[in-house]
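pasting for ref
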Amino acid sequence: MGVYLTKELVRVDKVVGEDKTQAIVEGTITLPDGKPDIERVISIDATLDTESLETDILDSKIGKVIVEGEVDVNAIYVADVPEGQPQQPVHFVEGKIDFSFFVKIPGVKKDMDVRVRAKIEHIQHSFDPNRPREIKVRLVVMFFVKVTRRVEIEIVIDATGPKDLQVLKKTLRIEDVIGEARAQNIVKSDVGVPEEKPSIEQILKVKAEVRDVTSKIIKNKIIIEGVLEVGILYVAIAPEGQPLQPVHFMEAEIPFTQFVEIHGADEGMARFIRVEVEHIKGRRKDDRTVTVEAILKIRAKVLETKIIQVVIDIFSPSKELHVEKKRLKLDQVIGEDENEIVIKDTLTVPDEKPDIEQIYKTSCKARVTESRIIDGKVIVEGVLTLETLYVADVPEGEPQQPLHFMEHEIDFTTFVEIPGAEEDMMLDFDVIVEHCSSSAIPNDPRRFEVRAVLGLFAKVTQMVELDIVVHVEEEYVEEEEEEKEEKKEKKEKKDDKPAMTIYIVQRGDTLWNIAKRYNVTVEAIVRANNIANPDSIMPGQQLVIPRM
């Protein structure tokens, strides 16, 4: 009787390679105009948002992955304030430090997916009294870079054959790729010149970056929202008699909403989204307006955690089997979970804004500033931005602008527990605003209450390498007379052996390895030794190995 293998086709992200590298990020934070000189630096803090990193893959022969991004740096310092001036000795300044580095991962290609995690391990700063408006910052950052590609693999999940066929399986939690899609979309909008800027004579250059990307899955579709941050360099029209500054720069934000269709996608599934600016151009519509047109390249992937049993070894005491295996590298899901937090706060109307008569609407956006894994727990920190439209209580006789806008920020921290998660594992998470509302406080027109519900979904994965069974054949060998005689003699000698063997368990032994070594079934050893838990044997334990 031969061996029959049961196979299942799964779509997974096969790990092409991964690397861990330490990079030195250095830069200078310069004080903006209006801030006093530095006398002494008190503290430096830095954060790195891995969601905003840009990656690029060079030619596969080189096998390089380029990672670019920026670190947000905050500094608190004691100011050098001359005597006789208002004393506010402690000041705050923030800045950004750009960085770029590469890792070598053989076999990578342009269309593969890159995932990056980063951890700031050390922050160092220095200050030169001769340069009282600069702080030099040096960071040591550990980066984890992983490259994957989508493949369809036939996995052997079971095997049947001779009665004594022994099948060893391993349980894997994998990310099954439900589907993926690529799309190109056009974003077009008119951008006005700010009031303080001069009119346009000629556009020199237009650049853009995508930020604040959020996504939502509905049935068979992913809705993607974000902001296109546009920078325009132009030659200005300078009226006669005024100082000439011909080249000016202006910025604008263009919100966009796109969607891609992925059959089988549904709420609650994980997703991977990447939006890049493939091409952008700006056209002068009139001297105060620029028409911006950008082509966005979108890649979207939907994944679902799936538990499968993979056959990793087979043998039979009664049959000679040829077992073919292959090495598989993929991400195993260590765990996933979700949590919900409620944010309640009382906010105050800015001094320059009028009193509240009635709140019209408050909208919330969550932005993650830091994420980390600590001892089986995923911790996510961020900022909740609240934008509120309200009807103002304007006294009669004053200019009436009944509808006003104000913005506030609230810091938040949330976490989920994922047993087995460690800091060097890969983390995927999503923070969504599930509810956002506000209400005016009676008899207090300068304050209002807000309530928001944030949902956090987190998944931790780790690359595993294992040899899986792909093919099994029973070996049929034409025996010569001499070989038959030799086997007969071996059988007679075997019959002379005792009916059992005593084996002392060594460190690292398993019942499977022992059974395979002595060509007996695992069940036979379990029965002979009355073993209650076959997965638990101890070094030094004596086992009776029955003869088959």
